[in-house]
C-alpha cells in the first residue's frame, strides 16, 4: 500500500531556531499533502494544505510566516517551523493522498518537536 | 462549521466487544473515517463509510446513519493491542482532496 515517510521522528531544538520537517510519499505521487498538529490528549488539527507547485493554503489562526510549507515536487513537502518557541512543541503529522484517489489519506509517522 | 463528538475514554475487557460512538453535525458530509492511533504514533486507516449501514472488516465493523448524523466502530474479540485512541473524522464533500475534520478521539483501554 501507499507509504508516507516523515523525517525526523523526534527533534529537540533551542528557542529561536528553525526546524525543517520532511514528508515524502514513497512509490506514489501526491499532488496534495496535509500538515496537522496534535497537542497531548487532543485531536489532529489541520494546519495547512500543501499543493505541489503552488502556495499552501493555511487554516485560520495558523501563521504562514511562522510555518513555512514548500511542496516542490510530487513526492516531497516540507514544513519549517521558524523561530520556534516552547509553545510550538507538539506532534506534527503529514498526510498525503495518492493522485486520483479520493479518500484514504495516508499518514506519515509523525515528528515530535520539543522546543527548549 | 463542523462538530464531532465521541466519548473521551472507554475501558473494556480482553475478548469482549466494544462499541465506540461518534455523532457529527457538519455543514457538508460525504463520508466518515475511523482511524486507530497508538500513543506517540500516527493514525492508521480503519474504515471509510459513505452509505448507510454496517461494513465489516474482520474484527472491526463500522456503521453509519447519515440521517441521524451517527456512526459507531465495533471491535470484537478485543485484544490487548487494541488499546489505542480511535478517531472518527468527517469528509465534507465528494471528490477532490477535501479537508477532513477529526473528532477528539476515544481512548480505549483493554484490560485483562
Descriptive overview:
The complex is a heterodimer of chains A (116) and B (112). By secondary structure, chain A is an all-beta fold. In chain A, 0% of the residues lie in helices and 53% in strands. Chain A is built from no helices and eleven strands. In chain A, the strands form two sheets. In chain A, strands 2, 4, 5, 6, 9, 10 and 11 form a seven-stranded mixed beta sheet that branches. In chain A, strands 1-3-8-7 form a four-stranded antiparallel beta sheet, with no helix packed on it. The termini of chain A are far apart. Chain B is mostly beta strands. In chain B, 0% of the residues lie in helices and 57% in strands. Chain B has strands at residues 2-5, 9-13, 18-26, 31-37, 44-49, 53-57, 60-65, 70-75, 84-91, 101-102, 106-111. In chain B, a hairpin with a 6-residue loop joins strand 4 and strand 5 (44-49). The mean pLDDT of chain B is 91. Classes of the chains: A mainly beta (116), B mainly beta (112). Chain A binds chain B through residues 6, 31-32, 34, 42-46, 49, 91, 93, 97, 102-110, 112, and chain B through 31, 33, 40-45, 48, 87, 91, 94-97, 99-105.
Low-confidence runs of chain B: none
Element pattern of chain A in H and E = EEEEEEEEEEE
* Assembly status: heterodimer
Secondary-structure element order of chain B, N to C = EEEEEEEEEEE
- C-alpha-based Rg of chain B, rounded: 14 Å
What fraction of residues of chain B sit in β-strands? over 45%
Share of residues in helices of chain A: under 10%
Overall spatial form of chain A: globular
Shape of chain B: globular
How much β-strand is present in the residues of chain A? Answer: over 45%
- Please give the number of β-strands of chain A: 11
Question: Tell me about the biggest sheet of chain B?
Answer: 6 strands, mixed
Rg of chain A, Cα atoms, Å: 13 Å
Query: What does the main sheet of chain A amount to?
Result: 7 strands, mixed
Total of helices of chain B: 0
Structural class of chain A: mainly beta
Overall helicity of chain B:
under 10%
Rounded mean pLDDT score of chain A:
90
Number of helices of chain A: 0
Amino acid at each position: 500500500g501507499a507509504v508516507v515517510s516523515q523525517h525526523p521522528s523526534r527533534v529537540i531544538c533551542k528557542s529561536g531556531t528553525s526546524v525543517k520537517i520532511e514528508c515524502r510519499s514513497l512509490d506514489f505521487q501526491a499532488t496534495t499533502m496535509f500538515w496537522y498538529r496534535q497537542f497531548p490528549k487532543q485531536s489532529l488539527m489541520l494546519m495547512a494544505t500543501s499543493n505541489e507547485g503552488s502556495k499552501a493554503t493555511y487554516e485560520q489562526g495558523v501563521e504562514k510566516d511562522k510555518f513555512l510549507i514548500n511542496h516542490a515536487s510530487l513526492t516531497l513537502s516540507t514544513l519549517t517551523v521558524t523561530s520556534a518557541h516552547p509553545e510550538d512543541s507538539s506532534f506534527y503529522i503529514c498526510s498525503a493522498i495518492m493522485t486520483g484517489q479520493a479518500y484514504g489519506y495516508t499518514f506519515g509517522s509523525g515528528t515530535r518537536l520539543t522546543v527548549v | 462549521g463542523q462538530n464531532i463528538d465521541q466519548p473521551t475514554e472507554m475501558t473494556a475487557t480482553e475478548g469482549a466487544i466494544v462499541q465506540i460512538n461518534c455523532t457529527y453535525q457538519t455543514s457538508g458530509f460525504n463520508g466518515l473515517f475511523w482511524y486507530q492511533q497508538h500513543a506517540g504514533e500516527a493514525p492508521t486507516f480503519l474504515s471509510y463509510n459513505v452509505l448507510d449501514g454496517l461494513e465489516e472488516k474482520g474484527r472491526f465493523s463500522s456503521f453509519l446513519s447519515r440521517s441521524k448524523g451517527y456512526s459507531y466502530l465495533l471491535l470484537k474479540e478485543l485484544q490487548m493491542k487494541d488499546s489505542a485512541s480511535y478517531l472518527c473524522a468527517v469528509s465534507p464533500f465528494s471528490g477532490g482532496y477535501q479537508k477532513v475534520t477529526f473528532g477528539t478521539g476515544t481512548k480505549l483501554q483493554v484490560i485483562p
